[in-house]
Amino acid sequence: MRKITHSIKIAGSTGIFLSIGFVLTIIGSWLFFGMLIGVVFTHQINMLDIEISNFLNRFRTPQLTAFFQDFTDVGSWGVAIIGFIVAVLCLAYRKWFLSSLWITSLIGGYALNIFIKSLVQRPRPTEALISGYGFPSGHAMMSTVAYGMLCYYILLFINNQFERVTITCLFTGLILLIGFSR
Questions:
Q1: DSSP secondary-structure letter at 127?
Q2: In terms of CB atoms within 10 Å, which end of the chain has fewer, N or C?
Q3: pTM for the whole structure
Q4: Interval 31-51: pLDDT, tens
Q5: Residue 47 in contact with residue 111, Cβ under 8 Å?
Q6: What is the DSSP letter of 1?
Q7: How many Cα neighbours within 13 Å face the side chain of 39?
């Protein structure tokens, strides 16, 4: 533990943010894999889905539906447009590492999503308009990868700590809203 705190002090604010990011990644992974195990091995998650859906349906209004549809759309066309623009900019400015990181992240996220879907084989809700398995949401996963990487790229060019925290919070909020809209 002393070694960890010493390395955080040496790295300064960057070390603190890397440590926080590492802890959040561990917590997020733990939650995701806990949910994955719940989906695969128990029906409790299905019951929870139904309860949450019934609860949220009580608050459904045309305005809220439109609001969340907008965030769903940002996750659809937004990812495609941003993905293309970032790839072109990275290549145009000869940022080979950033472009390979971008492309690898998108392809890796897509491949991981397909792998988990084939492993879990959870059917979509009956009202779904598309076919295929429903967990995890490819839409939410690709939005998380693309907007998370875009946030990282933007942070590479910003030194002001307040701006960095603000950008991170905005992208985190966008990712959470896209995920919740699903």
A1: T
A2: N
A3: 0.63
A4: 877 777 776 666 666 677 778
A5: no
A6: -
A7: 20
